[in-house]
Specification:
The chain has 183 residues and is mainly alpha-helical. The protein has 6 helices and no strands.
Length: 183
C-alpha cells in the first residue's frame, strides 16, 4: 500500500493539468474539504496508533473515520478542480487505493487485537457511519476516552490542514495562470 503515496504524485500532476478551477468551485470544494478536515481532526484526537484499539469518538461510528475524512477531502478537491475529468481522476484514485488500504489495516488490527477487534468490527461499519448507533460504548466499546489536542499533535494531523491550504493555494495559482496566460 506504499504505492498510494507514490501514485499520488503523478495523479496530482494530471489533476492539475485537467483542472479548470473557478472561484465558486474552489469555494464549494474548500467547504467540503473543511468537513473532511474536521472529521480527520476529531478522529486523530482519539487515535493512539499502535498502542490501543480506537473505539471512541468518531471511531464509535465508523472503523475508518480518518479515511472518511480523506474521502471528504478528495471530494472537495474533485469539486474545486472544476473539471469532470480531474474530479473523476481523484475519485478513482481514492476508490482504488483506499479500499485496499482499509482492508489491509483490518487484517493488521485483527492480528494485533484479535477478539476485541472482531467484536468492534461486528458493531461498527467499515466506512459509512451509522449515526443511528449513537455510541459503541453501550455495546462494549471504550468508555471515558475524550478528544485530546496532545494526541492530535502527536499524530501530526495538522499536516492535513497545511496540505489542504497548500492544495487550495495551488488551485488558486492554477486559476490565475489559466486566466492570465490561457493555459
Amino acid at each position: 500500500m506504499r504505492w498510494r503515496v507514490r501514485a499520488g504524485y503523478p495523479v496530482a500532476v494530471v489533476y492539475l493539468a485537467l483542472a479548470d478551477p473557478k472561484p465558486r468551485w474552489i469555494l464549494m470544494g474548500a467547504l467540503v474539504a473543511a468537513i473532511g478536515l474536521l472529521i480527520r481532526g476529531a478522529s486523530s484526537g482519539h487515535l493512539r496508533k499502535d498502542l490501543e484499539l480506537a473505539t471512541s469518538g468518531p471511531y464509535a461510528h465508523t472503523r475508518n473515520p480518518l479515511y472518511l475524512g480523506s474521502a471528504f477531502l478528495a471530494a472537495g478537491f474533485a469539486i474545486a478542480g472544476g473539471s469532470w475529468w480531474a474530479g473523476l481522476l481523484v475519485v478513482a484514485y481514492f476508490g482504488i487505493f483506499y479500499y485496499a488500504v482499509m482492508r489491509n489495516e483490518e487484517r493488521d488490527l485483527h492480528r494485533r487485537f484479535g477478539a476485541a477487534f472482531d467484536a468492534y468490527a461486528a458493531r461498527v461499519p467499515l466506512f459509512f457511519p451509522w449515526f443511528a448507533r449513537a455510541n459503541a460504548t453501550s455495546s462494549g466499546g471504550e468508555t471515558g476516552r475524550q478528544f485530546s489536542w496532545a494526541q492530535y499533535r502527536r499524530n501530526r494531523e495538522y499536516r492535513a490542514l497545511i496540505g489542504t491550504i497548500a492544495g487550495v493555494g495551488v488551485l488558486l495559482l492554477r486559476m490565475w495562470i489559466r486566466r492570465r496566460f490561457g493555459y
